[in-house]
Amino acid sequence: MKKLSLACALLASAVVFGSQALAQDKNKGGFVAPQTEIITVEQANGMGDDAFVMLKGKISKALGDEMYVFTDSTGDIVIEIDEDDWNGQNIGPDDVVIITGEIDKGFTTVEIDVDEITLAQ
């Protein structure tokens, strides 16, 4: 009976410590790409699918379902910002932001799937 109790205690501690170790590994970070130059909406519209881009401008309109209109001095482009990519920031239409993400080209549309959004300094 004592062996069974000891085995259960060891198993329970292994589960607790193992899950803590996995949680810590998730927060270690990852690859950091070299700084990309900021481009314009006009340039982004001419780039290929999955191209990595960085743009500076304003979010001028919410379209719903995580879709927005991003505007700079050269035009507008639709962007998609997932809920977790806001990082707790509240951003309005007068705020200048920098977005990074990938071009998502459809048959007749060009959008940017945003990975990161930050307030411009």
What would your notes on this structure say?
- By secondary structure, the protein is an alpha+beta fold.
- It has two domains: 1-30; 41-119, Bacterial OB-fold (OB fold (Dihydrolipoamide Acetyltransferase, E2P)), CATH 2.40.50.
- It is built from two helices and five strands; from the N terminus they run ααβββββ.
- The chain has helices at 2-26, 41-45; strands at 52-64, 67-72, 75-81, 96-105, 110-119.
- The chain has a five-stranded mixed beta barrel.
- Strand 4 and strand 5 form a beta hairpin.
- The radius of gyration is 22 Å and the shape is globular.
Summarize the structure.
With 121 residues, this protein is α+β, with helices and mostly antiparallel strands. The protein contains 2 helices and 5 strands.
Low-confidence runs (pLDDT<50, min 5 residues)?
none
Residues in helix, %? 10-25%
* Total domain modules: 2
Beta percentage is: 35-45%
How are the secondary structure elements laid out?
Blueprint: H1 2-26, H2 41-45, E1 52-64, E2 67-72, E3 75-81, E4 96-105, E5 110-119
Parallel strand pairs: 3-5
Antiparallel strand pairs: 1-2, 1-4, 2-3, 4-5
Descriptors:
25% helix, 5-stranded mixed barrel, single chain, 2 helices, alpha+beta, 121 residues, OB fold (Dihydrolipoamide Acetyltransferase, E2P)
